[in-house]
Amino acid sequence: MYRNITDFLNDWKYESENTAKVFSMITHQSRQTVLNENVRSLERLAWHLSQTITDFGYRSGLLTSDPLDKQPIPESMTALTAIYQDYAEQFAKAVHSKWTDSSLTDEVDMYGSPWTKGTLLRILITHQSHHRGQMTIIMRMLGLAVPGVYGPTKEEWAGMGIPAQE
């Protein structure tokens, strides 16, 4: 659970920038590929992360509506990424302007359960990290490069002239 706004905003900036970086490496050809019926496409996962921002924002009172609810997936990853980045920024600004450190222990109704605002912020970050991890595995399976998020990728190690760890 987050106990101060600044810590969340710092983490959110890092995490949302890296999520957009992952989105930017998804090709037009690979975005709709479904590996099997139990695995979402890359664009569906990217759109889910975008919709989660507005859903959490609306349910918690940070946003007055959920503008992405029932909206179709944009036609390009460029458009989807721009929408994601816009709402990630709007979410951060709303947290900064509407919540305080002391309000992070206040509860909001999330899907029929009481969550503290600090818990909601933690879940938003971990939910995004979870799905971003799924996306990078799918990207690897499709032969796409992936960016390093919490450390260099194999390709980034090679670019530094260092053998990748096994």
Walkthrough of the structure:
A divalent metal cation binds at residues 48, 127, 131. Pfam families: DinB. Belongs to the DinB family. With 166 residues, the protein is mostly helical. It has a single domain (5-159), classed as Up-down Bundle (Four Helix Bundle (Hemerythrin (Met), subunit A)). Helix content is 55%, strand content 5%. The protein is built from 5 helices and 2 strands, in the order H-H-H-E-E-H-H. The protein has a two-stranded antiparallel ribbon. Helix 2 packs parallel to helix 3. The chain is globular. It starts with a helix and ends in a 7-residue tail after the last helix.
What is shown here, in short?
The chain is mainly α and 166 residues long.
List keywords for this structure.
166 residues; Four Helix Bundle (Hemerythrin (Met), subunit A); two-stranded antiparallel ribbon
Q: Estimate percent helicity.
A: 40-55%
Reading the helices and strands in chain order gives HHHEEHH
Largest sheet, strands/sense/barrel? 2 strands, antiparallel
The CATH superfamily is: dinb family like domain
Structural class: mainly alpha
CATH class: Mainly Alpha
| β-strand amount | under 5%
Second rung of CATH, namely the architecture: Up-down Bundle
* CATH-defined topology: Four Helix Bundle (Hemerythrin (Met), subunit A)
**Overall number of structural domains:** 1
Ends distance: 34 Å
List the total number of helices. Answer: 5
Taken from the alpha-carbon principal axes, the silhouette is globular
Across the major sheet, the strand order is 1-2
Low-confidence stretches: none
Kindly state the mean pLDDT as a whole number?
96
How much is the radius of gyration in Å?
17 Å
Oligomer designation: single chain
Query: What is the number of strand segments?
Result: 2
GO molecular function, one term: metal ion binding
Pfam families: DinB
Protein name: Putative damage-inducible protein DinB
Binding site for a divalent metal cation: 48, 127, 131
